[in-house]
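Whiteboard transcription, Tuesday session. T.W. wrote the structure tokens on the left side:
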């Protein structure tokens, strides 16, 4: 590409035959890299910072296969409905137990039908966005071709301009008497013709640059639209696949459920018990496990005393004052849908609800509330409820209910904020069934073998000021705010509804050059299993959004390899990817929270940055703006297990 150094051009005076000197007196010595243009035209690039990045990843989706999946679900629903009709005929009306089970089954079938309709709409959106992406790619190629052609013409005209100007002027921009003498043997009309040619070339250059301005502006808009459409397409495809898997799982389980009910109903009626777990069963099982630990009559398949000794000798979590006895097991927490000892629960089920219910989308990451031992996991993939119990220091136990995916085993020692499970709770799915009425994490805390309100031992300052906490928790909320080591409450949240909108808005506000592209950051974080926003905020803290770099493209400004030295990178994307890769390297792979990455919370171990305070302050504030809640100092940065862990 020709480097265009834009300088001032002509005063606007017309060329005169009678005064050759006057005709050229405002010109300066040109070069092949210089255009002399009117100042009003100095706007050659319409590309905003970041607009030049386009994700070239090939995004394809087999829409025919998608339609087949939807048809399979429709056929499965029809089969389910027939099974239910057959049971109705076989059992007949008037059995209250069957009527309750039937209501639960019908509710799940209705949900499958509703989600199936949503899938059809999603498939249509995928088709439309695919078409738009394809058309956009074609248009972008046309624009780029036009820009390349324009640059070639500009290059040719610049060369002509260069050669014409050399016939009259010296290197200082003055009329060269020798060149003038040599040209004096020409006809005056020839000199006039050269002047007119010069004027024509300048005019043509002006027109071409204006045209290129327009084309580059179109290119910038097209790239932005293309990146956004590809991002939407990726999200739609991922969402479609997850929904199909979820509905198929529900359908198959319901078929098995109805068949088991048909075969075993006589036995169940005669014994007057339900072979499926109830809320009372779960409560009694948890109480029995707590009693087992209290009396030290361990039935775990590992040496509990040895594990407890290992836990006692474990180096304490990050060297900073603990903001609360336990950390939140899930993030974000926008509301508590059922509180400790909820009176409605007591009235419905006849015993107290001994935890809190936190609404969460299916498969939201779950974290260990503190260093501890996985004492017992109950992973019921069919007709029961999945749950697990952790033993912590200082007499604490924590119980998690409705996990969907489990990453650890009984006897494992886990660290505070370590990613260990994913949430579930959606009715009709394994580990939840009809016990749960909505996707959630039910979380319980036991201290000294007594159930305790979890909100009394968790940091309530993560909630925004407009939280819906009741009066009984307001005082603790204010106390937790006061204990914060930094004032986050002056942070202005980015006013956009979706997370991706807030991310892009943050980049628009603070970023420079290619780093303003959200698609760029998504590509940088891909496959790292590190929270996307943590990488953005490390970059924000280390190099002021790319404004200050220690080495080329090193926007993290730290040693981004396992040798721990500062190096430059061949491209901006390579430098951004190394931020995420560094958090998985041999020095940092075992850390889970942002505070462990710097000298503020980790004075002895390997760290990412040595800043004792400012870096942590900037990262936390940046994350709070993007996440739209007050991020804690020990925010967990892993969303899936480290792919490089040995």
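and on the right, the sequence the group agreed on:
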């Amino acid at each position: 590409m020709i480097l265009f150094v834009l300088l001032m051009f002509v005063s606007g005076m017309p060329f005169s035959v009678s005064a050759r000197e006057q005709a050229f007196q405002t010109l300066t010595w040109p070069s092949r890299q210089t255009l002399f243009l009117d100042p009003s035209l100095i706007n050659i690039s319409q590309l905003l910072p970041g607009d030049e990045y386009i994700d070239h990843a090939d995004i394809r989706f087999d829409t025919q296969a998608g339609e087949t999946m939807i048809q399979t679900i429709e056929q499965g629903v029809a089969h389910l409905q027939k099974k239910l009709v057959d049971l109705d005929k076989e059992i007949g009306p008037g059995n209250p137990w069957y009527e309750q089970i039937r209501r639960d089954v019908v509710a799940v079938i209705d949900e499958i039908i509703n989600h199936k309709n949503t899938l059809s709409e999603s498939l249509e959106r995928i088709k439309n966005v695919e078409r738009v992406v394809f058309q956009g790619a074609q248009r972008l190629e046309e624009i780029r071709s036009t820009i390349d052609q324009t640059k070639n013409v500009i290059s040719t005209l610049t060369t002509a301009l260069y050669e014409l100007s050399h016939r009259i002027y010296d290197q200082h921009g003055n009329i060269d008497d020798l060149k003038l003498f040599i040209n004096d043997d020409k006809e005056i009309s020839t000199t006039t013709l050269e002047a007119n040619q010069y004027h024509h070339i300048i005019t043509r250059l002006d027109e071409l640059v204006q045209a290129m301005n327009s084309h580059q502006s179109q290119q910038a808009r097209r790239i932005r639209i293309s990146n956004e459409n590809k991002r939407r397409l990726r999200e739609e495809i991922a969402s479609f696949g997850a929904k199909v898997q979820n509905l198929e799982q529900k359908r198959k389980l319901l078929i098995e459920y109805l068949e088991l009910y048909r075969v075993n109903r006589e036995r169940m009626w005669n014994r007057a018990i339900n072979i499926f777990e109830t809320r009372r069963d779960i409560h009694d099982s948890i109480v029995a496990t707590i009693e087992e630990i209290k009396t030290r009559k361990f039935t775990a398949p590992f040496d509990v005393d040895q594990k407890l000794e290992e836990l006692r000798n474990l180096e304490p979590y990050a060297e900073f004052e603990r903001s609360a006895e336990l950390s939140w097991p899930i993030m974000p927490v926008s509301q508590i849908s059922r509180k400790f000892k909820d009176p409605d629960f007591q009235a419905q089920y006849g015993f107290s609800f001994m935890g809190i219910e936190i609404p969460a989308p299916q498969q939201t990451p779950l974290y260990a509330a503190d260093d501890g031992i996985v004492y017992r996991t109950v992973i019921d993939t069919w007709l029961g409820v999945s749950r697990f119990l952790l033993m912590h220091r200082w007499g604490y136990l924590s119980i998690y209910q409705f996990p969907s995916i489990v990453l650890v085993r009984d006897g494992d020692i886990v660290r505070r904020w370590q990613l260990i499970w994913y949430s579930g709770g959606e009715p009709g799915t394994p580990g939840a069934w009809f016990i749960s009425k909505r996707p959630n994490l039910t979380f319980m805390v036991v201290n000294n073998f007594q159930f305790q309100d979890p909100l009394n031992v968790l940091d309530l300052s993560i909630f925004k000021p407009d939280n819906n906490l009741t009066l009984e928790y307001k005082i603790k909320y204010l106390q937790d705010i006061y204990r914060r080591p930094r004032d986050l409450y002056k942070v202005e949240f980015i006013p956009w509804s979706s997370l991706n909108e807030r991310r892009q808005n943050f980049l628009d506000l603070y970023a420079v050059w290619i780093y303003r592209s959200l698609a760029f950051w998504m590509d940088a974080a891909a496959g790292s299993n590190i929270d996307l926003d943590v990488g953005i905020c490390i970059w924000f803290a280390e190099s002021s959004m790319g404004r200050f770099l220690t080495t080329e493209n090193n926007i993290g400004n730290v040693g981004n390899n396992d040798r721990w030295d500062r190096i430059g990178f061949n491209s901006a994307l390579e430098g951004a990817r190394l931020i995420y890769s560094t958090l998985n390297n041999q020095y940092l792979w075992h850390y889970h929270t942002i505070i462990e990455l710097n000298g503020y919370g980790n004075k002895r171990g390997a760290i990412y940055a040595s800043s004792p305070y400012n870096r942590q302050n900037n990262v936390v504030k940046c994350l709070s703006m993007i996440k739209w809640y007050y991020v804690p100092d020990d925010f967990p940065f892993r969303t899936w297990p480290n792919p490089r862990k040995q």
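Someone added at the bottom: The radius of gyration is 34 Å.
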